[in-house]
Amino acid sequence: MNVQWIGLVAASATFFGVWYGHVAVRKIESVVERLWVPIVLSLILGLGSWLLSLLADNVLLSAAAGTFGVTLLWDSFEFWRQQKRIIRGRAPANPNNPRHARILTVSPAATTLDLLDRDPVGYPVNPEEAIHLIEDKTK
Amino acid sequence: MNTFGILLGVATLFIIGFGFVWVILGERYLGLLWWPYFMGLGIILVIGSLFTPTIWGSAIMGVFGGSLIWGSTEFKVQAIRAELGWYSFSPKSKPRPPFADKIENWKAPHL
Hints:
Oligomer: heterodimer
Radius of gyration of chain B: 16 Å
Structural class of chain A: mainly alpha
Shape of chain A: flat
Helix content of chain A: 55-70%
Number of strands of chain B: 0
Distance between the termini of chain A: 56 Å
Order of helices and strands of chain B: HHHHH
Number of strands of chain A: 0
Largest sheet of chain A: none
Number of domains of chain B: 1
Number of domains of chain A: 1
């Protein structure tokens, strides 16, 4: 029986593309002042990956580059969504980043706290308790 | 010119997009403890893709499997997002999965 490797290649490109994107977008958005730079870079890398996919003779390489490329293109959009999370206080702002420092002064919801950095408790949590829960964790 | 990869990429976009939906609904109505079942289903799909004869069938199974494995690692944070009111929190008691007692002792993964 012939083993069909394309599924494993596509699965790996999807999983690692999403994982890398998830971590990298948060990290890069947090430290970069001019957000258009990573947005444009991610677009270029994504389109470059698609060009590679288009020109590849090998079907495995075409699949990996096509799938990874789409995650890079998505990342480009995620940079903007991540900034929205910072504005709404759903991701921690970095006060050392001038762009985030400006957000912290104009957006009342913005915070430097990571409200997701804890274990679930199984019931709805109000804003004060949400802060207590992450403080308990750091004790 | 090999359009296969780009077409697969577009299909991947929809499969990942669907991931947002099933992670939210899965956490809301089934609950955090079901994460190993989503991960297991993903692993089964990826292994199944190795023995799927057609290229498209194998590729789509693989992408969906990879997306299920990723989504299973999102259950923990999604549960916290619902507790914070960022997504609607279902007050109904959630069905306990098989081996729930064991799963409770496992640390839910988050990448």
